[in-house]
Specification:
Low-confidence stretches: 1-31
Strand content: 15-25%
Oligomer: single chain
Radius of gyration: 25 Å
CATH topology of the largest domain: Dihydrodipicolinate Reductase, domain 2
Strand order of the largest sheet: 9-15-14-10-13-12-11
Number of strands: 15
Number of domains: 2
Helix content: 25-40%
CATH class of the largest domain: Alpha Beta
Length: about 425
């Protein structure tokens, strides 16, 4: 054996434990672990309890699923944070976990490398942003989405993008985002944790259920009206989209407040019976009469194109949870459930949302139609416009969003705490 052949064989024996033929070496290479998909997080802010902290953090640390630890099969490789407050956790987190903290959105996507990421988290919630005359926080989701798309165009390829919560405070910008994703043929997923969090009891009405009406109760007094109004409309929509005939769009929305809310219930524009069914599922349900307890009730009435009725009521002093009561044709009793949200700092309702994001990043297809979020974004925007206009009924062709609901809505069943 020549000297160089001997040295090569000896090295192979030391490193591999045995000598491999060329064919065996090729087989070993083919069965090597593939590169883990790379994710970039585009955030408004990364601090304790922010949405980026909860969602991007789960891509870093993992989370509980069915009582056991689950680590997403992705690598969060870069992060960009628009704002850096005093309690900013971005630098420390990135340094500890070998994540590149970037100065621009294109840099976070690896634009200088021809875009070397496989998926994007766009988490623009929380932070210091102005509020317009309609009472909407001007989160720059659309503007940052456009920067992401610009990188896609220059790179000549695109990857799945998840947008946290509603697509935009302005329904016209939200529609543009959906249209852009269709044009460039990349997957777009949006929404919050509410449609996929745990339900008490665990109800999943089959697609085609003959819903006639639904009422959602909730109670939150933090920040501006639209923040939790969007969540309540998501609860309403993820249930009523399963009705017979599919989602045919909304005819009108109207914001109501104070005594006008009670009057609308007395007139049958929303159902007291369904509200009672929803409240019965809430552990936080207060004692005493609603009219006496609730000082400033707020509501949004939704009239669907097919005649189905919906309403969401903010009853701060009566409950602190989201729940729904619904009337189904030929069923005597209402169906009802509480959409359970485990409390911060863990906020485990981000577990089911993150898991559904994982499914999306894996397949490139959203587990539930982005049209749902387009419709709830539009309803939220027009409800705020109704409030600004003195609680007038608002109708707009933009509400005519049509789509089919998924067979499985993706909500989490089972335990929400660690096993053992």
């Amino acid at each position: 054996m020549l000297r160089r052949e001997f040295l090569g064989a000896s090295s192979a024996a030391i490193l591999g434990g045995s000598l491999l033929t060329a064919e065996e070496t090729g087989t070993r290479a083919q069965t090597a672990s593939p590169r883990r998909p790379r994710v970039a997080a585009i955030n408004s802010i990364y601090r304790l309890r922010s949405h980026a902290y909860h969602i991007a953090g789960r891509f870093i640390y993992g989370y509980t699923r069915q009582g056991f630890h689950h680590q997403p099969p992705f690598d969060l490789v870069r992060m960009w944070n628009h704002q850096q407050p005093e309690n900013d956790l971005g630098p420390r987190t990135c340094k500890t976990h070998n994540i590149e903290l970037c100065r621009t959105i294109p840099e976070a996507l690896g634009a200088d490398k021809g875009m070397d990421i496989d998926a994007v988290l766009l988490i623009i919630e929380h932070g210091d942003y102005p509020v317009n005359e309609l009472g909407q926080i001007l989160y720059p989701r659309y503007e940052f989405f456009e920067q992401i798309v610009d990188v896609f165009k220059k790179a000549g390829r695109s990857v799945p993008v998840f947008v946290d919560k509603h697509l935009s405070y302005d329904h016209r910008l939200a529609a543009k985002m959906v249209a852009t994703a269709r044009e460039l043929k990349f997957g777009l997923m949006a929404g919050s944790s509410l449609p996929v969090t745990w339900r008490r009891p665990e109800i999943e009405p089959p697609v085609g259920t003959k819903f006639e009406e639904a009422v959602v109760c909730f109670g939150f007094d933090r920040g501006t009206v639209e923040i939790y109004l969007f969540h309540a409309l998501e609860v309403l929509q993820c249930m009523l989209e399963r009705r017979a005939g599919g989602e045919t769009g909304v005819k009108s929305v109207q914001f109501l407040q104070d005594d006008a809310v009670w009057k609308a219930g007395d007139e049958g524009r929303w159902s007291w019976r369904l509200l009672s069914a929803a409240l019965s599922r809430c552990a936080s349900h207060n004692v005493g009469p609603i009219r006496e307890n609730v000082l400033r009730p707020q509501a949004v009435l939704v009239e669907y194109n097919d005649g189905t009725k919906g309403a969401v009521l903010n009853l701060i002093e009566q409950t602190s949870e989201f729940a729904i009561g619904a009337k189904v044709t030929d069923r005597q009793e209402p169906v009802s459930s509480c959409f359970y949200l485990p409390a911060p700092p863990g906020a485990r309702f981000f577990d089911p949302l993150t898991y559904n994001i994982e499914k999306f990043f894996t397949t490139g297809v959203s587990p539930y139609p982005v049209e749902r979020t387009l419709l709830t974004s539009t309803m939220t925007d027009l409800a705020m416009r109704s409030l600004h206009a003195g609680c007038k009924v608002v109708a707009d062709p933009a509400l005519g969003v049509k789509y089919e609901a998924p067979a499985d809505s993706g909500f989490f069943r089972g335990p929400y705490v660690d096993a053992g």
